[in-house]
């Protein structure tokens, strides 16, 4: 019963509600002029499929599967890429919080540090005027998690992945470090690895923060539109476009 309720909700609430409204408009137009009705039907179907986990998981999964998570670390520093942060929001020992993806990356870096003893370099600045400075927040949280200040390096100036790579390369050269273990979300890893290659760095990929499950099962929920699926589709398309640009301008 719970799955039936979820299925109904997905079409009663946005974005599924908008699909139903557009289909109603298609039916209304069909009686008047079939050509614009067909065009609108095509647009509606495109929107519908982009809102479903069936499509969003396939798109994001293609990115996440490109780099498997390694069994052993082969590097001298753990480099963590930011993924957004809020400013002024309450935290245990200060203000400002990392967004979900960035927090997941940070947790992975802490666990790897405890296993390997490698220092952590967190790269990410204040992207927007009302967002938090990612590296500054990460440093405070790392200290709160018991990581020694001597094992924390930060780049609090980078505003995008390309700057992450360039600024990281400069810091590693200054510190005499050469073999970064790159920690970022699985969907972000292909683009990040390309930018690090462009910056002259040979990194070991350690993806984390996965979205798509490794095992696929076809079920009704895969065909129901959801805000989460829209977000995932948008994220995946952004990464594919960014990866193309990184290849073209290397």
Going by CATH, the architecture of the largest domain would be: 3-Layer(aba) Sandwich
Count of distinct structural domains: 2
Number of strands: 7
Structural class: alpha/beta
The Cα radius of gyration reads: 21 Å
Helix and strand run: HHHHEEEHEHEHEHEH
Could you estimate the helical fraction of the residues in percent? 40-55%
* CATH homologous superfamily annotation of the largest domain: HUPs
Q: How far is it from the N-terminal to the C-terminal residue, by CA?
A: 53 Å
* Spatial strand arrangement across the major sheet: 5-4-1-6-7
By DSSP (H or I, 4+ residues per run), the number of helices equals 9
Q: Sheet bearing the most strands, described?
A: 5 strands, parallel
Overall 3D geometry? elongated
**Any idea of the CATH topology of the largest domain?**
Rossmann fold
- Residue share in β-strands: 5-15%
Q: Uncertain runs with pLDDT below 50, 5 residues or more?
A: none
GO cellular component, one term: plasma membrane
Protein name: DUF218 domain-containing protein
Keywords: Membrane, Transmembrane, Transmembrane helix
Pfam family, one: DUF218
């Amino acid at each position: 019963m719970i799955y039936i309720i979820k299925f109904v909700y997905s079409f009663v609430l946005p974005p599924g509600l908008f699909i139903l409204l557009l289909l109603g408009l298609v039916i209304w137009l069909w009686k008047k002029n079939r050509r614009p009705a067909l065009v609108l039907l095509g647009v509606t179907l495109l929107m519908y499929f982009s809102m479903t986990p069936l499509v969003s998981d396939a798109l994001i999964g293609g990115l996440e599967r490109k780099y498997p998570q390694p069994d052993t670390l082969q590097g001298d520093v753990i480099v963590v890429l930011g993924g957004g942060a809020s400013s002024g929001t309450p935290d245990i020992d200060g203000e400002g919080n990392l967004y979900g993806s960035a927090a997941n990356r940070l947790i992975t870096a802490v666990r790897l540090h405890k296993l390997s003893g490698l220092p952590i370099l967190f790269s990410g600045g204040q992207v927007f005027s009302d967002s938090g400075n990612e590296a500054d927040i990460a440093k405070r949280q790392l200290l709160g998690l018991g990581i020694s200040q001597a094992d924390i390096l930060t780049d609090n100036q980078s505003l995008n992945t390309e700057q992450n790579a360039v600024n990281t390369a400069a810091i590693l050269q200054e510190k005499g470090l050469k073999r970064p273990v790159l920690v970022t979300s699985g969907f972000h890893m292909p683009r990040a690895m390309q930018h690090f290659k462009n910056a002259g760095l040979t990194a070991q990929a350690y993806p984390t923060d996965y979205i798509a499950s490794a095992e696929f099962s076809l079920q009704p929920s895969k065909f129901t539109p959801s805000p989460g699926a829209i977000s995932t589709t948008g994220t995946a398309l952004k990464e594919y476009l960014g990866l193309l640009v990184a290849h073209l301008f290397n």
